[in-house]
Request: fold
Amino acid sequence: MIDLSDAGYWRDPYPILERERALGAITYTNTGEPALLLADDAELLHTDRHFSTPGLLDLERLGICDGPFYEWRARTLNVMNGPDHERLRSYVGRAFFPAQIRRLRGLVRERANALLDRVAETGEIEFISGFAADLPLWTMCRFLGIDEADRLEIGSFLTGTEEGFTQQMTPELRRRVEQSIVALNTYVADLIERRAREPKDDIVSSLVQLRDSGGGPAEDEMLALVVNIIGGSVGSTRAAFANSMLLFAQHRDQAEKLRQNPELAKQAVEECLRMHPPFRIARRKAIAPIEAFGLKLEIGNTILVPKQGANRDPARWERPNEFDIARPERRHLSFGYGAHFCLGQAIARANLQEALPIVLNRLRNIEVARQPERVPFTMDEQLDGLHLKFTAARGLS
Reply:
């Protein structure tokens, strides 16, 4: 059994998931919900027409059934299915064309070096606040054409909205979440108005032009889309950076392997994502009766996918608990699968592929000054801090 009410499970689920998988392909949560532990089963769940995303059910489980956060979430890609999902996804897909991602890569390299310049001579860094939290937000703001002066304000709004996806909600937390989404919606609405008056070469201007031509999203859909884009790849990339650097600090041989073999950057990032998926869980809901995974499911029944379990399935990966950046690539579940495959994954991967080699080249002899813990009950696999000590490499940037 997986006890989702146990903070210990969230801090280190891997031994529990490995134990449960040794007993069978599925297990159950403390509430009786089935959970899939094999990668093939998880992929089938994400593509079979008998299942859909659970919509707003995850918020309703937390007692959020109305209010501004609920209303915003109802308009996002994450909870939509079918034609509406395909239509809205098509509006923003052009922003992630290869040419746009190539431009982003240059911005990532620029910012990564600037952040490391600040700490190179100190020999230490709190990596999350000093790098992992800054870089994804900075590059996203540049990517969307958001003014530098607004970046920190947006960051504070995002911190608040991310709390809406915790697995334990309190009245105080809900107030912070709703205040943050109202503030972020207000900012984005103003940004849309500014781009309508003064278009730029960015995704917001493109959406405004589509709207004005009569072939784009409605006003409330566009607002939800832009907020979704801003938040969708910032928090998850922050978590991925922190977990990746912890892995490299714990496996210096792998850090040196990447320094000596920069062509392994793409494989190294995929291995980091496999070992510690930024998003911990996925859930699907049956929309028609079906017998699958040895279960007889009725309409409305849900199935959980602990991605940490699927990503270490020994049927897909040899030595699945071993961190090996030269491992042959196999598809993992970290960014989902199927129609709801994460739209922002290209941005997250560009951030990681460009920045991690720069960090490892400029910071040598990396040590963890204080062993971090994973924050329980959050949807992304957050660390409570990552204080690193290092020796600065000379003549590298």
Q: What stands out?
A: The longest helix spans residues 171-197. The chain has a mean pLDDT of 92. The radius of gyration is 21 Å.
